[in-house]
Amino acid sequence: DAMVIQNPRYQVTQFGKPVTLSCSQTLNHNVMYWYQQKSSQAPKLLFHYYDKDFNNEADTPDNFQSRRPNTSFCFLDIRSPGLGDAAMYLCATADPRQLKTQYFGPGTRLLVL
Amino acid sequence: AQSVTQPDIHITVSEGASLELRCNYSYGATPYLFWYVQSPGQGLQLLLKYFSGDTLVQGIKGFEAEFKRSQSSFNLRKPSVHWSDAAEYFCAVQGGNKLVFGAGTILRVKS
Fold it and tell me: How distant is the Cα of A41 from the closest Cα of chain B, in angstroms?
């Protein structure tokens, strides 16, 4: 089945130690998104790619970076995780030709010690 | 700017009872509207969407939603709730390339 895959599902890192979360998709969608979702809150958009064009949200901290080496893969890099970065990170994809419906992966739960 | 309000943070219903989750949106143009469901520790699953046409849309798992432009609402309904429906439900409106989510409604199902 075509899908959005996130690895790992759970990630533990230490305060200040860089961490990378990965997302891959078999839907061949050209838009990919990263969201941060803290406990009992709605997902918050960090940034998105339209093909190779990177679009950062104005309030996304500089500590968060992203890479998209090809259509299928997108990475979220947190350069120096703080305790406040512990959250669920959701990847989503969309195809503008399909009226922009977003399809979400299962998420990566990040714990910062 | 677009916004979504889900007035109910928590709702508890008995198994087999009907359900309605409320959603109000603010958007200047014709909205693209979505309902997603999220089980604990999981990603968001699309239940249904509205773009145009028939204002009553059917989704997966027996859910439906009705778009009412005059009330700026897109309420989610299910005639008979099952224990497995316990989850958090998010209403969202699409603006440009972005989804704007409501704060979510947590559904509890009691037996």
Answer: 6
Cβ–Cβ of A42/B102 closer than 8 Å?
yes
d(CA A5, CA B68): 35
Q: Tell me how far apart the alpha carbons of residues B51 and B58 are, in angstroms, rounded to a whole number.
A: 13
Q: Which residues of B touch A4 (CB under 8 A)?
A: 43
pLDDT tens-place string over residues B48-103: 999 888 899 999 999 999 999 999 999 999 999 999 999 999 999 987 778 999 99
Query: CA–CA separation, B67 vs B56, rounded Å?
Result: 6
Q: Which of B32, B49, B103 sits opposite A42 (nearest CB)?
A: B103
Written in H, E and C, the secondary structure of A67-101 is ECCCCCEEEEEECCCCHHHCEEEEEEEECHHHCCC
